[in-house]
């Protein structure tokens, strides 16, 4: 009589193969769902269990925020997430394509094209990639909240870390889905403000209308003056580097304001920013080695539409007449 030999995990060969095939099938169906712009089946199944109260809800709310939501008739539904692992184009190739499209004189070195006379510039293709990655993460966050029947997602945070493979990044968006005593909506509102601040905004007559975000990616080309300054023995400001940070920030904030205006907002709250700088050593010729920089600035906040006349939330002095 033949027996199936068990491995250290306690599974026979046939059981292990069945488990691997099931995992492969699940992965293929999840990828197909992402390609259709949907969430995987296992995410939808978990959401259905939460709606039917078969699973406890989770959140990143504090005790004070939870109590305040209950006081004003708002109910947390659960913590929701959206994520994407996104391949980012190599900045060298992006810069080379921009130079060729501009019709400038290009010189090749180290496998890349650089226009020596183009100077510093924005990397538009990389900016578009960052927008798309954040949009994918936020849309999946919104879709998961919609499965729970949410009206809004508060405390939205976007985290960016290097991806699991080379030249990739992992974008994760998280927040707490909440529901109000209102008719259901197709697309829940996303906002960076906390649950407590969300209640205060609504009570004050201000309406959050959505997220506003902006990205600026600037390629700074160092000149001989920058090289000389970097090797100086005295303290001094690196003006070219300072300008690169300002350029990237200005671009990001300008785009954030534009997004806020397009969504009907006249202000941005809970404004968060992030700055990343990548140093790039470039050889322009024999003995001409310079340190350039890729500066990325990210800005995100909650666009609101507010009225000049709103409820006064200042505490009132009350003297009891009861004896």
Automatic annotation (TrEMBL):
The record's section on InterPro entries has: UPF0145_dom_sf, UPF0145_YbjQ-like
Q: Which Pfam families match?
A: YbjQ_1
Could you name the domain of life of the organism this protein comes from?
Bacteria
Question: Which family does the entry's similarity section mention?
Answer: Belongs to the UPF0145 family.
**Which PANTHER family does this UniProt record tie to the protein?**
UPF0145 PROTEIN SCO3412, UPF0145 PROTEIN YBJQ
Provide the protein name. Putative heavy-metal-binding
């Amino acid at each position: 009589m033949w027996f199936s030999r068990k491995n250290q995990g306690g599974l026979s060969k046939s059981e292990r193969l069945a488990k691997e095939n099931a995992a492969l099938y699940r992965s293929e169906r999840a990828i197909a769902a992402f390609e259709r712009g949907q969430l995987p089946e296992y995410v939808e199944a978990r959401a259905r269990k939460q709606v039917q109260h078969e699973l406890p809800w989770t959140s990143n709310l504090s005790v004070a925020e939870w109590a305040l939501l209950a006081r004003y008739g708002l109910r947390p539904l659960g913590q929701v997430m959206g994520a994407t692992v996104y391949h980012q184009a190599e900045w060298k190739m992006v810069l080379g394509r921009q130079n060729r499209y501009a019709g400038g004189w290009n010189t090749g070195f180290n496998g890349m094209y650089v226009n020596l006379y183009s100077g510093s510039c924005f990397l538009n293709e990389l900016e578009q990639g960052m927008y798309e990655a954040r949009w994918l993460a936020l849309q999946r966050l919104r879709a998961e909240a919609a499965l729970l029947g949410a009206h809004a997602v508060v405390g939205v945070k976007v985290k960016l870390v290097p991806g699991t493979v080379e030249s990739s990044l992992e974008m994760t968006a998280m927040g707490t889905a909440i529901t109000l005593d209102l008719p259901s909506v197709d697309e829940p509102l996303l906002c960076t403000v906390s649950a407590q601040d969300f209640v205060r905004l609504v009570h004050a007559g201000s309406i959050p209308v959505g997220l506003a975000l902006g990205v600026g990616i600037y390629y700074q080309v160092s000149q001989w003056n920058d090289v000389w300054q970097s090797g100086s023995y005295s303290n001094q400001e690196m003006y070219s580097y300072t300008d690169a940070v300002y350029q990237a920030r200005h671009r990001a904030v300008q785009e954030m304001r534009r997004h806020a205006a397009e969504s009907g907002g006249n202000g941005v709250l809970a404004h968060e920013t992030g700055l990343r700088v990548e140093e790039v050593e470039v050889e322009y010729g024999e003995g001409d080695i310079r340190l350039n920089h890729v500066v990325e600035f990210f800005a995100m906040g909650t666009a609101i539409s507010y009225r000049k006349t709103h409820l006064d939330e200042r505490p009132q002095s009350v003297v009891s007449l009861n004896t």
